[in-house]
Specification:
209 residues; alpha+beta; Protein Transport Mog1p, Chain A; 7-stranded antiparallel sheet; 22% helix
């Protein structure tokens, strides 16, 4: 294994835990820390608002297959949400990440879940914007949409491959909404499993009540 691949994996996984694949951080925004606003509970065509505390919708270590460990869980920062999503009435969010380290140091996989709450009347727009940001280019030979069971009110999933020297990293990502909740769940690494992602997405959707 070349030097490029030995450096690429830890750097890539480090970035994976820091960057949000759903909402792009607005680095120019001033540090603002407003009080967390409870989710709006109203009746709309999208269904009633979510009433469970946002942390209660996060995946737990027991939801993960054997070998995965909790890396980090935290509330989302308002200053880390881009202005376009603030304008849609972003209310609060939560992030949780897990990792699995194989017997070989170069075999590692990360799973990241992001949960964001919006007013029911803007959740569809938030989903559409995130979908546009995350979908691969039409002419991509390595990134493509994959069949996936319907999750929540609307959902889509895709697969991406990134090569670094002799190392290839695969990412599976699913985004979905239910009521006024938007979620992204991604799996990235050298040993990924579509079936595991599908199972986790179902567990995450079931936690939205």
């Amino acid at each position: 294994m070349g030097f490029g691949s030995s450096v690429a994996l830890p750097l890539f996984l480090c970035c994976l835990f820091v960057l949000s694949p759903g909402c792009i951080a607005d680095l120019s925004a001033p540090p603002v820390t407003p009080a967390i606003v409870p989710a709006t509970v109203t009746s709309t065509p999208e269904g009633p608002g979510e009433t469970l505390p946002v942390a209660g919708m996060a995946l737990q270590p027991d939801d993960l297959p054997d070998g995965y460990h909790l890396k980090d869980r935290t509330v989302a920062s308002y200053s880390g949400i881009s202005q376009v999503f603030r304008d849609l009435g972003w209310q609060q969010g939560y992030r949780v990440s897990f990792y699995r380290q194989g017997a070989d140091w170069s075999d590692a996989t990360a799973i990241v879940q992001e949960i964001d709450l919006y007013p029911p009347d803007t959740i569809k727009t938030a989903y559409s914007l995130n979908k546009e940001n995350l979908l691969p280019a039409e002419d991509s030979m390595t990134d493509y949409q994959v069949p996936f069971p319907q999750i929540g009110d609307r959902s889509i999933a895709w697969r991406e491959v990134r090569s670094f020297d002799t190392l290839s990293l695969v990412t599976y990502t699913v985004i979905f909404t239910k009521k006024n909740v938007y979620e992204t769940i991604s799996m990235t690494g050298t040993s990924t499993d579509y079936e595991v992602l599908r199972d986790l997405a179902g567990k995450a959707e079931a936690k939205i009540r």
